[in-house]
Structure formats: structure tokens, C-alpha cells
């Protein structure tokens, strides 16, 4: 039986004879169902239509991105550390070429996901590389396919490998996570942020939103929680779902949070 993949968000569902009637992730107000209605594809179809491009973002960090763009179009990031390789966020496509390349780079020892929009075909990746999938327990209800490798974690922080710590600042989702990589940015520390701290095109500021496609803001308390969760951790670089802030990451977060709070208070 095929495991159907939502065309809009890219999340894979359990194997079934027929596609699901709904995609709860897209029907939530943080996503959307396209004007053409709910549509589905399969991994086999994607493997004939698309491929993944892999390139170095910084020493020890690789970007994996599907082309032509599919669903939300985010990149997955493979952090290569002395303690093992971590795949941050996921894609809907896993093909033989990607598998061979990643295997030659040492495989994957852990998969960590920032939030439900980037679950992709995480069960396929987990099974292929025999790697656990770390998802915060607050987002358990959003997991659509649970048959492989799921590791729920709770609390504010969880070290999954030496020098690799998951944080839960919340915001975009209750279980939204970021990954602190102590060895990133040539030892100065890097943050892999998904959508909780979204890198803006200026590469000098970030955004915080409850819903990006529907432009729904977060409350002030959520911004304070994000800032305070990140504050104890040393980092300079922020790698978002598409873009990277190369330096002065904490200053970008603080400046952006102050601007955001002023605006929602009406202090333009």
C-alpha cells in the first residue's frame, strides 16, 4: 500500500489503500488547503519527478533541498558532529542518490524536527538510516505517521548528542523546537531554527509568527518566552528553513523581538 503525501504541506501519512480524506495539518489555521482542494502524491511519484540537491552551508553542515520545489520547499540540514550526524527537519523525498550520499557522509544518528509543517517523510528517513526521530511531546497530536523511530521529549531542553541540544521555545507551535549546535560556526555556536525564529531576507533580522501564510501574529508573552529560552546558549549563526544569518545572531533575535513587541503594542 502507498503512504500518501500531502501536496501542500509535504507530510506523509500511514500506508493505506486510499488517500486520507483530510490533512489536519493543512486544515489548521497555521497552514492552508490550496484552492484546488486537498491533493495527494506518493514517494514513488516524487522519485520520478524530483531530486534532492546537497551542498555545504558551512564546514560540517549540509543543506538538502528538493528541486523542483515541492510543498513548502524548506531545506533539511545535516549537521556532522564528532558525536554523530543529525538531520534537522525533513523532506518528503528520499531517493537512492540521496541515500547513498548521506550514507557515505556517515549516515544519520538522530533526526530532530522543528514543527509539524516539516515532518515530511520522516518515517522513511528514520527507517532508511535506523535513526530515532525527536519531536517534542507537546506536538504529539500532530504526528500523522508513528510507525518508525519516534522519540518524544519534553521539558525546555534535551541533549541528544554531545554538543547538540534541542530547545523548546514554543511560539509557532507549543512543541516548536530549535537545535543548538555548540560546534557550529567554527566553534562559536549555531542555531538551527525552523520557523520559530525565521530568518528574514535581509539576513539581519528574524520573524516570529503563529501563522506565516495567514499572517497571524504571536502574543507578546510568546516572544518573551522565545528570547528567554535562547538567552543562556552561546551562538553566532542562525540557519533558518531557507536562509542563514552568518553572524551576530543573538543581536538579531533581540533587536527583532523588541521591534515586534513595539508593533503589537501599537508603539510604532
Separate helix tally: 7
Q: Gap between N and C termini, in Å?
A: 55 Å
CATH superfamily: Ribonuclease Z/Hydroxyacylglutathione hydrolase-like
Question: Widest sheet: strand order?
Answer: 4-5-6-7-8-9-10
Q: Fill in the CATH topology.
A: Metallo-beta-lactamase, Chain A
Q: What structural class do you assign from the helix and strand content?
A: alpha+beta
The major beta sheet can be summarized as:
7 strands, mixed
Report helical residue fraction: 10-25%
Order of helices and strands: EEHEHEEEEHEHEEEEEHEEEHEEH
- Share of β-strand residues: 25-35%
Q: What Rg do the Cα atoms give?
A: 18 Å
CATH architecture level-2 label: 4-Layer Sandwich
Number of domains: 1
Report the CATH C-level class.
Answer: Alpha Beta
Uncertain segments of ≥5 residues (pLDDT<50)? Answer: none
The number of distinct β-strands equals 18
**Global shape:** globular
**What average pLDDT do the residues reach?**
97
Amino acid at each position: 500500500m502507498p503512504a500518501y503525501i500531502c501536496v501542500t504541506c509535504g507530510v506523509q501519512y500511514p500506508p493505506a489503500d486510499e488517500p486520507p480524506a483530510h490533512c489536519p495539518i493543512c486544515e489548521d489555521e497555521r497552514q492552508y488547503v490550496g484552492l484546488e482542494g486537498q491533493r495527494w502524491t506518493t514517494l514513488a511519484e516524487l522519485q520520478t519527478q524530483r531530486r534532492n540537491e546537497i551542498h555545504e552551508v558551512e564546514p560540517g553542515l549540509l543543506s538538502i533541498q528538493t528541486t523542483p520545489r515541492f510543498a513548502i520547499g524548506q531545506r533539511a540540514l545535516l549537521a556532522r558532529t564528532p558525536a554523530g550526524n543529525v538531520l534537522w527537519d525533513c523532506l518528503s523525498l528520499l531517493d537512492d542518490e540521496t541515500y547513498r550520499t548521506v550514507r557515505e557522509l556517515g549516515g544519520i544518528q538522530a533526526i530532530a524536527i522543528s514543527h509539524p509543517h516539516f515532518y515530511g517523510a520522516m518515517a522513511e528517513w528514520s527507517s532508511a538510516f535506523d535513526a530515532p526521530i525527536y519531536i517534542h511531546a507537546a506536538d504529539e497530536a500532530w504526528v500523522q505517521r508513528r510507525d518508525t523511530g519516534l522519540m518524544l521529549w519534553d521539558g525546555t531542553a534535551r541533549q541528544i548528542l554531545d554538543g547538540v541540544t534541542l530547545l523548546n521555545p514554543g511560539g509557532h507551535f507549543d512543541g516548536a523546537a530549535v537545535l543548538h549546535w555548540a560546534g557550529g560556526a567554527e566553534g562559536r555556536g549555531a542555531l538551527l531554527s525552523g520557523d520559530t525564529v525565521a530568518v528574514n531576507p535581509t539576513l539581519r533580522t528574524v520573524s516570529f509568527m503563529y501563522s506565516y501564510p495567514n499572517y497571524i501574529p504571536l502574543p507578546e508573552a510568546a516572544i518573551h518566552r522565545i528570547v528567554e529560552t535562547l538567552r543562556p546558549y552561546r551562538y553566532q549563526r542562525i540557519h533558518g528553513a531557507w536562509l542563514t544569518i552568518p553572524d551576530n545572531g543573538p543581536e538579531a533575535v533581540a533587536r527583532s523581538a523588541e521591534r515586534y513587541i513595539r508593533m503589537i503594542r501599537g508603539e510604532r
